[in-house]
User: What shape does this take?
Amino acid sequence: MNHPLLDLPPLTAERFARIEQGVADLLGTRADVVITQGEALLPLEGCIRSGARPGSTALNVVTGPYGTTFGNWLRGCGANVVDLAVPFDTAVTAGQVARALAEHPEIDFVSLVHAEAATGNTNPVAEIGEAVRAHGALFMLDAVASVAAEALLPDAWGVDLCVIGAQKAMGGPAGVSAVSVSERAWARFAENPAAPRRSYLSLLDWKERWIDADRRALPHAPAQLEMLGLEACLDRIAAEGLPAVTARHAAAAAATRAGAVAVGLAPYVGRASQAAPVATTLRVADASLVVAKALAAGPAAPLAAGGGALAGEMVRVNHYGLAASLETVLASLTALSTALSTDPSEAVAAAEAAWAETLH
Assistant: This one.
């Protein structure tokens, strides 16, 4: 018996290239795009191991847990790492980045996360990109959580390596990701004798065997289901319109924040301008217990306790992809109110007003 998810025809090089161009169009980039056959940690590690050289110096901006991971990878490459860490309930500033670059003129690689879904903050990439460009360093951006949720302009912002994933605001599967690679980045990779080659982490292999070969033959069999999922995400975003998708995420964030404040919950990220549109984090005592009670009351609500040390003090309300909707926001706020034994009516009213005002 045929099965629609199992008995699929091979994915042709032509279709793969069309999907690749769709990613480039989404990012508004003229740089090469490489679609990587795995979760976004694959291209992120590939970028670091290709761009950071033994003895080089990297600025690693830490505004959440992924910054710690990037720092470990950079050190593993033999790079000297300057960590610029800020409290997870805030964002880094362009001034802080510029000062770090001025204090360490030898820095030639900068890594930054755009939006931190785990902590609920987002960083001002446009302004930071100006500082990095003036310094001349290679700029890698983790935009996995921000793509399709807020403005993302890698070319205009001077981003050399922009890594995205389909599983957050794009509303797709976790098993496929992509990276745009500037000409400067390709040159850096080629000059690095330690860059991965003949490896799943190798971006240079993709360039030589796919891009430079005019995209005629795929280097290996692609992950069909994930590629079709990515294609479907791109089609759905195009049908709704990227401005409408980002506006919906902004409205979900504003509504969640307003509803939470209405019932006395303090946002973990104090300034709304520094809050990510994909997740709203809240300061809640006994967070794991509260989330368990909330999920018992509203099992469909996309709620989670903070990770690690934050498990006891932070609740994360996810609102990305199809969950960036007023219905989902109201369900989450109602479940939280039930867990906290408060009347959800004020939260609902505040959220509805904020949603309407944001989309007005």
The mean pLDDT is 96. Residues 241-359 form a domain with the Aspartate Aminotransferase, domain 1 fold (CATH 3.90.1150.10).
